[in-house]
Each structure stands twice: as C-alpha cells, then as structure tokens.
Amino acid sequence: MNYQQTIDYLYQHLPMFSRIGAAAYKKDLHNTIALCDALGNPETKFKSIHIAGTNGKGSTSHMLAAMLQQAGYKTGLYTSPHLKDFRERIKINGAMITEEFVIEFVQHTKIIAEEIQPSFFELTVAMAFEYFAKEKVDIAIIETGLGGRLDSTNVITPLLSVITNIGYDHMNILGNTLEEIAMEKAGIIKPGVPVVIGEYLAETKNIFLAKATACNAPIYFAQDEYMVSDIVSTVQTLQCAVTNTVHKITEQFLLDLNGIYQTKNLCTVLCAEGIITQQGFTIKNEAEKTALANTKKITGLHGRWDVIAENPAIVLDVAHNEDGIRQILKQLPIGNTQIKTHFVIGMVKDKEVDKVLSLLPANADYYFTNAHIPRAMPAQELQTKAATFNLNGNFYDDVNNAIAAAKEKASATDLIIVCGSVFLVGEVNVPADVAEKKT
After folding, report:
1. Nearest-CA neighbor of 46 among 116, 134, 106?
2. The domain defined by 3-299 carries CATH number 3.40.1190.10
C-alpha cells in the first residue's frame, strides 16, 4: 500500500470516533496492551508526561512540548484529533511522523490488528509509542483522547500527570456529573507519580485528593500556586503577569496562543515545568520565554483563537462544549458597539448542543453549517434548534461558503468566529500565505 491507501485503510476499516462516535470507544485497555506487547512494549522505552482534561489539554501539551524542544530535548508529541493531516497527531520536535513510518507500521501490525480488531485510536496510540521509542526521544508529551482511566494512552507510566480541568463533555461515555467525569480523568494518576491539577471545582477537588492519596502521588493545584494579572490581548498575542504565590515572584509573559483562556493553561504549564525541572530536565528562562512566545511555530498548533484574516478579523477556535464556548465569550469585545460578532458554527450530534446554544448572544449574526462527517448535525437542523434560542441566520452545507457569507455581511471592524467542532475548523480553507506564516 502507498500512503494514501494506508490512510484510507485506517479510516475505513477501523472504528473511528470522529465518524461513528461512542461506538468506536473501547471501554478497556486490552487491545492497546495487546498491541504494545506485540511491539515489544515501546511505551516503556521513553520518558513521558501524560495530559488529560476537558478543555485546554491540547494547548497545554503543545506549550510543554515547545518548552522542552526549545531547551534542547528531542521531544515527542501525541495529540488528537488532527485538523488537516493525520500525521499532525504524532510529531517529534514539531515535525510530523513520516509517511514511510505510517505505511510500515500499518503493514507490520496488520495481522494482529485483524486478530484483535483495534479502534482507529488504539492503533494510532501504539503507532505513536513505537515511533517515539524507535526515534529515541528524550521525552514525549502524551495527550489523552477522552477520559483517562480507560483511555488507550493510559498504559504509560509517566514522570508527571497533568489534568487541566473538568467540565461537561462526552457525558454519554464519562458520566453525567462533574464528579463522575473527574473520577474518569483522575484515572491517569499513577502510584508515586506527581500530578498537576490545572483548575479544580468544589465538586472535583476531593476526588483528585483522594485518588492522589491512594496512589501516594504528590499533588499540586496550579490555580492555588499561580495568579495571573495585567492581561493584554491583541489580535496575534497575549501578554500577562504571572505571580508564583508560593515564592512571591512575578514574571511577565508573552504568548502567541492569544486566547484569554490560555492564561489558565499557562499556570498549569508553569506548575508542570517546575516539577519536571526537579526531575533532571533543565529549562532556562530564555528557552521558556521563547517557547511560549512561539508555540504555534515551534509545534504547529492551530485552531486555538487562531486569527487567519483581518479587516474583518476571522478567528478559528475548536471550542465545542459548554466550558469552551464560555471561554470564547469572555474574549468578545462586549460593550463596543462598533464591533459586531458573526458566528460561523457547526456541531456534532452527540454534544450538548442545546447547552451551547443557550450561552450564545442573540445580538450576534449566525451562519449555521456542518462538517462533512456522519456525526455532524445537519446545518438546517442546527438552524432550527438555534431559532428556539432566538439565534437567527441562514444555513450552509460548507463552512467555507458560510465564511464567505459572513465576510460579505461584516464590516472591516467586525469579528467572525468559526467554532463548535474540531472537524468544522479542520475543513476551513486557510489562505496559503497565512498557513505558511504559521509554520
């Protein structure tokens, strides 16, 4: 098989969450363990940091990877889902896994794959572990898919576990309460392995404490140890001051991940950095600052308050659940009557669509659309649902047509936000010159 045939095989023959949803989720680790056993347990051959959470785990993973890479370490990065190219999921020092390795791995594992019938995600996780082991990375940042306890990535024993936050998402799999969701995420906490909790809630803190205590795992709460102030957000950057409340030290930071919500992820990253430097990794202040100011360029992260055009500004953001949308709304220029907001929005059917729609402002303009995957809610159905929340606009079968309509209606000072689904953002045609600048 050539590369395209290999990718077609992965997409068409293996259960894939983005296509069919919960039916692709395997509620145990047996397949991943079997795959890793067949490969000689590559997950034991490199150091790692394991990251879970409802929102922010992708940004946190990329910031940590950028820091370690900038500090001179050969750094693996496993994240999901991808936006444009399957190979975005598996990177070393910002470079995607080679097509040749993908082809060879799929061919090498075809017999056992036919025997145990892994999901797309299970096979992809094993591929990442094998690639990082073969390439002898110094450390790899491993992001969970969803959950934690039964996530395929949870066969590693990392140097550090990180849980960014807990919110409502994937309730059909993880549970209907914040406590139940927290218990699933807390499943990545391992015996003796320190854990950083980015944000906690009254309902979740004791769950993390109990799990950490049972595992004799040192636990750190980033929101208690770091405080952000003096936030200044521009079209392309975010500046802020962060105070370490333990050591009473305040530093200035410049981020190219410019969503205001990134300040929370920054605190999580700084807390994690402090722990891994205690474990023998050296990250000088210059490397830290350079990495945080250039995370998008260093790691190739896209889709987080990603500005792809100006006059009017067009922003891509993969926010797709209640908490994610709340963070976007905090970024809006509220009170500025000169700026109108245009939402290009599409969602998948198994999300809490009504909850998201209930949060959106009625005084914005809406362009309802859908990604071209089976899980996507048809644009016209989304339009009908939205109307019950006094959110009105036309529907479009393609996100790029919806963006074109928004551009035609918007003034130069307006803001166009494309959000609601990772898969929707992945279908946006980003201008070639803009895409080139971001890599």
Report:
1. 134
2. yes
| 3 state SS of 218 | coil
CB 324 within 8 A of CB 260: no
Predicted local confidence at residue 142, as pLDDT: 98
Q: What one-letter code names the amino acid at 315?
A: V
Residue 305: CB atoms within 10 Å: 25
Q: Specify the pTM.
A: 0.91
Start-to-end C-alpha separation, the chain: 29
Cβ neighbours of 172 (radius 10 Å): 11
Question: Nearest 5°: CA angle at 432, between 428 and 433?
Answer: 125
Domain ranges of the chain: 3-299, 306-437
Length of the chain in residues, anyone? 439
410: left (phi over 0), alpha (psi -120 to 50) or beta: beta
pLDDT beneath 70, residues of the chain: 15-27, 168-175, 334-337, 432-439
CATH class in words for 306-437: alpha beta
Which residues, including other chains, have CB under 8 Å from residue 174's CB and lie 6 or more apart? 146, 147, 180, 181, 184, 185
**DSSP string computed for 107-119:** HHTHHHHHHH---
Express each pLDDT in 287-345 by its tens digit: 999 999 999 999 999 999 999 999 999 999 999 889 889 989 988 876 566 789 999 99
